[in-house]
Amino acid sequence: MSLGNGRTYLAIPGPSVMPERVIRAMMRAAPNIYHGELPDMMPDLIRDLKSVARTRHNAAIYICNGHGAWEAAAANVLSPGDKVLVASTGRFSHGWAEVARSLGIEPEILEFGLRSPIDPERVKERLAADTEGRIRAVTVVQTDTSTSVRSDVPAIRRAIDAAGHDALLMVDSIACLGCDVMEMDAWGVDVLVTASQKGLMTPPGLGFVFYNDKADRWREAVKSVSYYWDWRPRTEPDYFYRYFAGTAPTHLLYALREALDMIAEEGLEQIWWRHGILAQAVWAAFEHWGEEGPLELNAPDRSFRSHAVTGVRVGSDKATELRNWCENQAGLTLGIGLGMEPTDHFFRLGHMGHVNAQMVLGALATIEAGLKTVGIPHARGGAEAAGEVIARNTSP
Fold first, then answer.
1. End residue of a domain, out of 232, 264, 296
2. Rounded CA gap, 328 and 1, in Å?
3. Cα–Cα distance for residue pair 157/387, rounded to 1 Å
4. CA–CA separation, 17 vs 392, rounded Å?
5. pLDDT single digits (tens) 128-172
6. Same domain, yes or no, for 77 and 214?
7. Total structural domains in the chain?
8. Burial category of 221 from C-beta neighbours within 10 Å (exposed 0-12, middle 13-18, buried 19 and up)
């Protein structure tokens, strides 16, 4: 017997919950791809995308996932034999390094573990030692989806500048654009990558690369950029099809247009605030449960926890049992312990994009029931502690 029938909640850290408005926007006949509303809406769509990234510079759209966005970014500013400094806080930092390596680029991994953010001082020291200027870029994952650790991007920019180094600052904001604060221009980010399926509330399939004029100048020195990955034709296309190097992802564009409208209606600062409060509610629940038992948030310090995803250490092999119970008995799907060992000691709760208080509180109450059912020791009342955070931050 199961209580899981009814509307399910996909609380993994991406793909995130899609709003009904976004789903309905896609449910239409295929449009004309040569003229009319689809080509006409592109300038405003690009403008609104850049608004979410907080940049006045350039935006290129690719038909791909986040891995494709990584490759697009690397292919436009790095050549085989170039060296890149990879500041690592988890599995996805290494993923970007793997993509670079496949292009003949040499990644140097600067490890910060799975529970700590990037230390800007260590970045500064490594760049200062690079007296020959071999390091062409520093890659940073703002929020590593596997660990839920969020790094201080402005501090890393200051570290690069303090070292007197000319390396590009390339930031992956795939997990958290539209959830955690991102100010591309104000923070001095040269290249920013993200994807459609998380804070942008759109189905997987679109990757985005934002780049400034410095990064575009570096494009001049790249030995070879393929027809597909070249960002310049996508940024200033002479024909509509050049935005996508071919046929447009028509229905994903309608979905994205609706999602960007929803972001504008709520307001980006309000969205950041909403994610911040909901994240604090999640933390309050787990911190309370952990007072009596092995449950522990992977990121111990609140100052470097993401507002988009929370990684949890269960302290035993019962994480998989808990996830299975939540999905099969209650209709709540939690994220696996990706990139963590052993994987059945970890799980992740995604709270990104189209989420509100009742969704998060419902997920936490379900998890608390699951903790009881599968026998994970914990202090009672975690969901109530989360409710207190919500009440305190929304009282008149």
1. 264
2. 10
3. 37
4. 26
5. 999 999 999 999 999 999 999 999 999 999 999 999 999 999 999
6. yes
7. 2
8. exposed
